[in-house]
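Supplementary notes (optional reading)

For those who missed the lab, this is the record we used. Protein: Phytoene desaturase. Length: 503 residues.
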Amino acid sequence: MSAPTTRRVVVVGAGVGGLAAAVRLAALGHRVTVLEQAPDIGGKLGVHEHDGFLFDTGPSLLTMPHVLEELFAATGAPLAEVLPIERLAVACRYRFPDGTVLDLPGDVAAIPDALDAALGPGRGAQWSAFLDRARRIWDVTHEPFLESPIGLRDMVRLSRRLDDVRTVAPWRTLRGLGRQHLHDPRLVMLLDRYATYTGSDPRRAPAALAAVPWAEQRWGSWYVPGGLGRIATALRARLELLGGEVVVGAAVAEVTTRADGRVDGVALADGSRLAADVVVANADARQVYGHLVRTPAARRAAARVGRTTPSLSGLALLLAVDGPPPDQPHHAVYFAEDYDAEFDAVFGRRGRPRPVARPTVYVAAPDDPAVVPAPGTGAWFVLVNAPPHDPGRGTDWDAPGLAERTADTVLDLLAERGTDVRDRVRHRTLVSPADLERRTWTPGGSIYGSSSNGPRAAFLRPANASPVPGLFLVGGSAHPGGGLPLVLLSARIVAGLVGPARR
């Protein structure tokens, strides 16, 4: 006779991964409680409101929307009935160091012509050749490496298929693969940016990350009217409809275990305890194994995670703008003059990790009346890459004046690069890596947990099924990685590992 399937599930953390896993597990018949230490849900998909301006403080676009649609379709009413999403006609405006401006279309079929028009004849053909290789990488990798639990068996299986190995080219970096096809340095710079989607250095990140631009351009860039924070709200509503619950302001101090090492619940900071047959941790793996679980298996896992390279972090400026430029696109990237120097600074090459002197600047400026108090105003999210908060060995983002001085530099750089809003900012709020660490309990504010630097990075990322029986990991620091679609896929993997409840 088989053992009874679990019914009591506690999810630690109400980020998107935790909420998505909770929804799927509730739909499978489990009794699910989500505990969130913060007063609000969303985790890194945060929302900040000030004086009628509403800011997303995490992701500002949705890619691979079919993953979110499948989640809602599998657990009740379809996404279209609970949350509208809109495809952007211009995925992003890029300004290159030579002053060239490219409006990258949201329709992949229109991209080659746009590249030829902005960068010169032949550039579209170069990018199309690269995307063809990226599509083949996607075809080889998406099922075993993004949609399934990963392990040594997957590595062995891939290594036996010589054609697949040649396609993925595990010995090659993303930068190296790009230079095979892209002979315009601006196209190389465009590709390099996709390494930052996993908090990585394109000179060290594996060529397999070419699947990222393919997926984004294949399925387009999308926005949620009212802000992407509404995704977390919709997930919570779906969970409650299925009988689950979310408790905010409930900090978990320990994931408790039985004498045989299997989890049996969680202990909260207020001294209370909640029993569970399964615990799903939507928290950074270093925190989970280093602080929440106190078993030999967890200590060994903590040592493995400690050997990985933390992902980059970021400094965010939330700007309430009066009279924003009328032609400002929803998304814009203003590239640095020296992208390699930026990665050197963030990852500590030629010295300690340090703020970037002249960083690339990313701006999300949604034309959305739902996020501003009045017409003629804008709620801008401005982000630059930054090293994690590490006072001992790198950058102390709590040092007096550092975040403010860096923010001033960012606004000056925007002005230099053609978008001057310095005299239009009604107020600004800064979110530094140190702030992110405190808000999300993420060491150093590393946005994606560990980086994808190195050919073995995917296999070093913590698995969804932990070595502690009954404990599962979900979210950006676990397999398959960070970013909304991958976090949603991690939730699907975890639900599949736990399986349905028997009544």
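If you only remember one thing from this example: The first helix runs from residue 16 to 27.
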